[in-house]
Amino acid sequence: MARIAGVNIPTNKRVIIALTYIHGIGRTTAVEIADKLGIDHSRRVQDLSDEEVLRIRETIDADYAVEGDLRRQTAMNIKRLMDLRSYRGLRHRNGLPVRGQRTHTNARTRKGKAKPIAGKKK
């Protein structure tokens, strides 16, 4: 089992699909990495040599923000918005939708399970 950026990559999958198991690498980035290193898209991770896995690991470390660094960067961006007390920061703090969605109905993902209000019946 290959280990890249602190993630165990599944060996029986194609390289492009396996790289998407790393947080911060999607399909497009995985294809870009494979093209840059000259790795065929149809090859499986188990067919890669140790040297090829090492080249993939070095390329990702050098050129892409992935896993812990990316999560930390995202958390710092949200914290900065909250510290500035911007509208988006306040929405994050209150656990409400940040990007302008309606909250009268829906928005249950951000707001959590519906809480019944006592004395609302007529």
Q: Level of helix content?
A: 40-55%
**Approximately how much beta-strand content do the residues carry?**
under 5%
Q: State the end-to-end distance.
A: 63 Å
**With helices defined by DSSP (H or I, 4 residues minimum), what is the helix count?**
6
Query: In CATH terms, what is the architecture of the largest domain?
Result: Orthogonal Bundle
* Strands side by side in the biggest sheet: 1-2
Whole-angstrom Rg: 21 Å
Low-confidence stretches: none
Mean pLDDT: 92
Shape: elongated
Count of domains = 2
The largest sheet is: 2 strands, antiparallel
Based on secondary structure, the structural category is: mainly alpha
CATH class of the largest domain: Mainly Alpha
What is the chain-wise order of helices and strands? Answer: EEHHHHHH
Please report the total strand number as a whole number: 2
Look up the CATH topology of the largest domain: Helicase, Ruva Protein, domain 3
Report on the structure:
The longest helix has 18 residues, at 67-84. The protein has a two-stranded antiparallel ribbon. The chain folds into 2 domains: 2-64, Helicase, Ruva Protein, domain 3; 68-111, Irregular (30s ribosomal protein s13, domain 2), CATH 4.10.910.10. It has helices at residues 15-19, 27-37, 50-63, 67-84, 87-94, 108-111; strands at 2-4, 7-9. It is mainly alpha-helical and 122 residues long. The termini are far apart. Part of the 30S ribosomal subunit. Forms a loose heterodimer with protein S19. Forms two bridges to the 50S subunit in the 70S ribosome.
